[in-house]
Design goal:
Elements (H helix, E strand, L loop, with lengths): L1 H23 L6 E5 L2 E5 L16 E5 L7 E2 L12 E3 L7 E2 L12 E3 L22 E3 L21 E3 L20 E3 L7 E2 L12 E3 L7 E2 L12 E3 L21 E3 L7 E2 L12 E3 L7 E2 L12 E3 L21 E3 L5 E2 L5 H10 L2 E2 L3 E3 L14 E2 L5 E2 L1 H7 L13 H13 L20 H6 L8 H21 L1
Parallel strand pairs: 2-3, 3-5, 4-6, 5-7, 7-8, 8-9, 9-10, 10-12, 11-13, 12-14, 14-15, 15-17, 16-18, 17-19, 19-20, 20-22, 21-23
Antiparallel strand pairs: 1-2, 24-25
Length: 472
């Protein structure tokens, strides 16, 4: 028992020593505590205008977010051999002296986001950070990144540089052999050139969404064979070269939504056998080339909603068989025999819904699932429009013998009754509504009669009077 007690005391001594060491030299405006990951120093929202002169030597994490720091001098943080995470977000940094981060040999994560006055970084800013894995430069209003800036970071895995003012993909990315994630969204990038992403052989995720990309050059991603997620949505792409995504055999997500694409090319997705999610929504697509999706046998979802599609041929999927979910709403679909295969698939698979018909007029407003296709004697499909056009309407029934008064009353009713719309024979959900003269008068409606109608009405009344007098 005594041995166990002594063992517990011995094990507890390092923890107590660590807590005392962490708090002994804690800056006055900060809070320091010992955690499982090491000594944590929190100085966020402390109103600091300069970096504290001293930190605990054992510090593993320092948080200086939301202060008023404007300048980082050389060795701004002294020597902190255990520091792995440093956050300086939401300050007013306008200049960082080259060598400001010297003395931090184990730093793995550096956050500089939301320093809108920074705008420029010296090529030697991150010198000596050979173990840095994550760098956050978001919302710094940077116009460019010096070519050699990131070359000092051989271990860099993740780069967040969104919400900046780049007009091209920063050349500093080229050759970063260990980079796996790059976030470059919401900037002003206009093109992805054939040399923009050279050497990024381990890149798995690339976000270029919400930029101004008008062109993706052929072979732009040829070095990115490990890429799994590519986001190009909400740009200005009107066309793509056939080899735009050549070599992306591991790609699982491709987002091209919110562009200006007018068609889907057959060769675009030829190499994307592993693709699971394809977004083509919110474009101007009016045509899908035959075989465009033929290699996408593993696709889980295809988004074609919000385009100008009137027809989608089954040939776009052959010879493969698309088994995923298909999103087709907000398109002006023409529900004729060319979409019969889609209606049958909707019924059998349940993986597509909400396909509203815009034409022909006989089915406009219906969902494709409600459309009935007839067959000829030869088994050929008949379009709904042809059904209504060829359907024979019943001829007039023979008029029974009647007196002059009853005949005149019938004629008068025909003259005064409004013309009813042509009755639709097939695929209609409502019958025609005929309104009589008496209904119009009772409901307060106004009946307008032409000169010829008034003449016939007067003549008819005169004939009735003469007839009654003769009867008497």
């Amino acid at each position: 028992m005594l041995v166990l007690l002594l063992h517990a005391v011995v094990l507890g001594l390092p923890s107590a020593w660590a807590e005392e060491a962490c708090t002994r030299t804690c800056p006055a405006a900060c809070a320091c505590s010992s955690t499982e990951s090491g000594c944590s120093v929190r100085c966020d929202r402390a109103g600091l205008l300069r970096v504290p002169a001293e930190f605990p030597c054992e510090a593993a994490s320092i948080d200086l977010d939301r202060n008023g720091l404007r300048f980082l001098g050389e060795r701004a943080f002294g020597t902190l051999p255990s520091l792995r995470r440093l956050s300086l977000r939401h300050n007013n940094l306008s200049f960082i002296t080259p060598g400001a981060f010297k003395g931090l040999p184990r730093l793995a994560e550096l956050r500089l986001a939301h320093n809108g006055e920074l705008r420029y970084l010296h090529a030697r800013t991150f010198a000596a950070l050979s173990r840095l894995r994550r760098l956050d430069l978001a919302s710094c209003r940077l116009f460019t990144v010096p070519e050699r800036l990131l070359a000092e970071l051989p271990a860099l895995r993740e780069l967040a540089a969104f919400d900046n003012l780049f007009r091209r993909v920063p050349g500093a990315l080229r050759g970063l052999a260990n980079l796996t994630h790059a976030h470059l969204e919401r900037s002003r990038i206009e093109a992805v050139a054939s040399s923009s992403l050279q050497g990024l052989r381990r890149l798995r995720s690339l976000s270029l969404q919400a930029n101004r990309v008008r062109a993706v050059h052929a072979g732009a991603f040829r070095d990115c064979g490990a890429l799994e997620h590519l986001l190009l949505n909400d740009n200005l792409l009107a066309e793509l070269p056939a080899e735009a995504f050549q070599g992306l055999r591991r790609l699982r997500t491709l987002n091209l939504g919110g562009n200006a694409l007018g068609l889907v090319g057959r060769a675009w997705f030829a190499d994307l056998a592993e693709l699971e999610l394809l977004y083509l929504d919110r474009n101007s697509i009016a045509f899908v080339e035959e075989g465009a999706f033929q290699n996408l046998s593993g696709l889980l979802a295809l988004h074609l909603n919000g385009n100008h599609l009137t027809v989608l041929a089954w040939a776009a999927f052959q010879p493969g068989f698309f088994l995923g979910r298909l999103f087709l709403f907000r398109n002006p679909w023409r529900c004729d025999c060319r979409l019969e295969w889609l209606r049958d698939w909707m019924e059998s698979s349940g993986r597509v819904a909400d396909v509203p018909c815009a034409s022909p007029g006989s089915v406009a407003g219906l969902d494709l699932s409600q459309v009935a296709f007839a067959r000829t004697s030869d088994g050929l499909c008949v379009d709904p429009e042809e059904l209504n056009f060829t359907a024979s309407s019943p001829g007039p029934s023979p008029e029974p013998a009647a007196t002059t008064v009853s005949r005149f009353s019938s004629l008068l009713s025909k003259l005064l009754a409004p013309r009813a719309p042509a009755e639709e024979v097939a695929n209609t959900t409502e019958g025609t509504l005929n309104t009589s003269l008496s209904d119009s008068l009772l409901s307060g409606g106004v009946v307008v009669l032409g000169h010829s109608t008034w003449f016939l009405l007067g003549s008819g009344l005169l004939l009735i009077v003469v007839f009654v007098l003769r009867m008497d």
